[in-house]
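REQUEST ID: PR-0412
SUBMITTED BY: lab tech R.K.
PRIORITY: routine
TASK: structure prediction, single protein chain
INPUT:
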Amino acid sequence: MSQGGGAAAAAGENGVSPGNVPVCYYGTAGRVPAAVERRVRAAELFLRCATCGLAVLAAALLSADRQTRIFFSIEKEARYTDMQSLVFLVIANGMAACYSLLQGARCMVSILTGGVLVSRPMAWAIFFCDQVMAYFTISAVAVAMEAAMIGKYGNMPFQWMKTCQLYKRFCAQAGGAVACAVAASLNMVVISLVSAFNLFRLYGSGKGSK
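STATUS: complete
OUTPUT:
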């Protein structure tokens, strides 16, 4: 019995779970329960798929958004290309959708194969790309929301009129696209937190360290 207990204790010190609870190991002495690992993977996959769908929807709504009005026998069509902020938003959401699709495929392969992210350079690369994409989408949303507010409420000091009073359907569809872009950017922020968790858990504290 003493030999068995000593073997179990030695196995525990070497990072092997002697019990019947599955445990995933990261870093020098980091331990993450397998149930938590599965939840993290599922949450990351869901967030990346949701981000891809929302970004595609936002880009599609803006790309198809147009309305034609006639002013004194002159036909004027409003399109998203008339505002550089909306063009920037379409580009940003297109990039976010492609990036989320690639990362979602990586998460799916990891789930199906049972692989665990233990490479620190790869974790750093994912963390850096997620951070950049989150900041990129947030900046695009901020610029688009500012332009949308000017279009809806105008700007009296600069004598900018309320264009949404003339193109109500165009502004309504653009508002829906901006809302989808806001949701996608918030998802990217949460994803960046998940990637930070996946990265820094690889740096488990060793025995005797703080």
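NOTES: The chain has a mean pLDDT of 78.
REVIEWED BY: pending
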